[in-house]
Amino acid sequence: MNTKHNFTHRKYNILIIISFITIIIGCNDSDDDRTTLTGDDYYQNIAEGYLSNMTLTEKIDVVSGSDIGSDADPINLKNTAWGAVGTINGVINDDLDLPAVKLSDGPAGVKSAPYLVDEDLSDSYATAFPIGSLLASTWNTELVEELAQKLGAEAKELGTDFLLTPGMNIQRNPLAGRNFEYFSEDPIVSGKMAAAIVNGVQSQGVGATLKHFFGNESESNRLYVDVVATPRSLREIYLKGFRIAIDESEPWSIMSSYNKVNGSYVGHRKDAMTDILRNEWGFKGFAMTDWGADDVANDTDSPAKLMKAGNDLVMAGGDAIKEDLQASVESGDLDESIIDQNVVRILTQAQKTPSYSNYDYSGVPDSETSIDVARRAGTEGMVLVKNDSALPIDGDSQTVAMFGVAQYATYKGGLGSGNVLAKYTIDIATGLSERFTVNEDLMSWYQTYFDANKIAHYDSWGPLAYYEIDEASVTDNSDLETLLTESAESNDVAVIAISRQAGEGADRTETEGDYYLSADELEMITQVSSAFHEQSKKVVVVVNNNGVIDTSQWSDLVDGILIAYMGGQEMGYEVADLLSGDVNPSGKLAQTYPANYTDVPNADSFPGVDEDGDGDVDKIYYNEGIYVGYRYYTSKDVDVAYPFGYGLSYTTFTIDKASISNNTLSDGYSGQLTLSATVTNTGGISGKEVAQVYVTAPEVKLKKPTIELKAFAKTSELNPGGSETLTFDISSFELASFDPNGDEWIIEPGTYKVYISNSSDISDTTPISFSVSQEIVVAETTPGALSTTDNSIVDVDVE
Ligand code: BGC
């Protein structure tokens, strides 16, 4: 099954063999023909030549993965990648010497650990970058691309050919266990961020993999759960980002998800894997399954089914899959031409990788430059959601008292395949104590408490993953109570750290200690606030979280709240950069913080229903249709704690002079709308601002959310009084809605209102408008694709 969990890469303690192989090109075409080809056509031509020199068995080896955790060693592995979680087999015969190609996780850094296996590389670590949710909150695609260049460069130095990143499922519900790996509740943000990651990684000659295509918005029974949803909601919310990423970055590969959609495993759905992905969208890379997806379907012809639907590579692979595929071809169930096509698709992309050019990787990434961009992105993505004159803290004149075990139990990232085995995590205690004068007695009390009570949890690869620890109860600890009273008298500001961990394989829960604060955490905030407020001093909470938590219960008790998410290994320094004002906050939430969990439009249906009573959820109904996140709250006028797109700065900005500079929407898919607006820093210190373009579209055939985000842009650092004119391109596809009756994407006629605002709260923004005189068909789609026979799910309207 999931071989990753059995993986002991000590077994692969192979010395780096720097091989000077010559790849013998068994290609029939002359070099002259090939010189007229470019890009993928060039590589495809070579791949077709390789194919003509391969036996059926060799072809099956290529399409079935090598199952790195089993006894079946990868074929023609030239050298090791300490972090490979799987490989694509190579080919070695009289005509060909094609190397195995290595695949590694993951989204927040390369999951690789040379230090575990090679004495000479004992100081070689991959960098833990900030998690996806935090990167999305930067709303800065240039910065994310710059970070991804470092991620790709690290992968290359660590011997990786393909990174299994970015994760880009939609944050449909705050409790989904892997939300930390994903970007946003909005498909435009997700698609643009994913494109930035792919462009950055692939600029280094390493492949990127969009995952998990699609419907993997929860972890409960993630291998088997059936997502029941309307084609419109699937297209507009859950698939749209994937298409944007493919259009804007041409990823070399994509990973199909485990789950079912409308009754069939996604990997078995030809309408998804071929009709939509390739025929409608023109995806040119190869599609791999998620790890062990063949076993999941629990039938022996599953590998053939996966291939017939359009998966090219079955991962993690292994002998059983090969035998099944061989039998399917021999019985005539699986046409060999499908295997041929898959081999060509895989080898077309594989040729671009470092393994094919015998890249002499060092095993030692350039951590210094990675750490620099990780820290800049970390500070740019943390979101200040409350500031009643509490921040910034003046390090020259103010002293800090720190509370909460999370100052030591600080989490750099989430768990599972996305956990990075980095060298260190700068905890919040360290970050703040290096920047501010802190209350040493209090800090050492927490250090002692942490050391005495922490429970270590290890990654399946060996290194420490995180510490589990309960908050110290203030009232049960007389020393802590005394320290609290003293610090409220002697220090100027209290900073309280709260943290939340989550990971692959389980969803979070709407319980105390998870979505809600635990009783001890709440008591701590209450006591600290009361003691400091009595002395007219401010209290700031730093939330080190994997995803959305409740703030309504306690936000009134404090003066400042920084949603810090998980900032990678530089976490503590990033928090200090922001609290001190060394960096002016400019992050904006890429997901809504609801006022109450029960307000979440799918609160009742998450994480699904157990229809057969076996204790596992079987179906998850996406009843809210396209009304996910802010699309719901704004349409239904539901108050939220902090809206999508929201985030404070230490300065103030205006956004004005909004205008439409170009409109070629009538050109169908290639049409676009170009807008501009001027952002001015009206406050006293320099900073950056995000301008977000929300559109209210006319409703002719289709009901629509009150507003939908269509574009965004971020300024550079603006000095006080400085301004910048931003431009926004909205493609016709981004503007369009899906008409399920016509099986097409359309832009409806009428007047469109456009709000350029600094959050989804557009109440103070004056819109501009433009008109569309007649319906524009942007794209035709496959009739009936993704349809459901379940009558209980229909496109809903929210008024
Ligand atoms: C996860 C993928 C991951 C793969 C390899 C799967 O269980 O869902 O995201 O890339 O394992 O580790």
Automatic annotation (TrEMBL):
Superkingdom assignment: Bacteria
BP-aspect Gene Ontology terms: carbohydrate metabolic process
Pfam family, one: Glyco_hydro_3
Residue span(s) of domain Fibronectin type III-like: 689-760
Keywords: Hydrolase
GO molecular function terms attached to this record: hydrolase activity, hydrolyzing O-glycosyl compounds
InterPro entries found in the cross-reference section: Cellulose_deg_GH3, Fn3-like, GH, Glyco_hydro_3_C, Glyco_hydro_3_C_sf, Glyco_hydro_3_N, Glyco_hydro_3_N_sf, Ig-like_fold
PANTHER family for the chain: BETA-GLUCOSIDASE
Family per similarity comment: Belongs to the glycosyl hydrolase 3 family.
Protein name: Beta-glucosidase
Organism: Vibrio xiamenensis
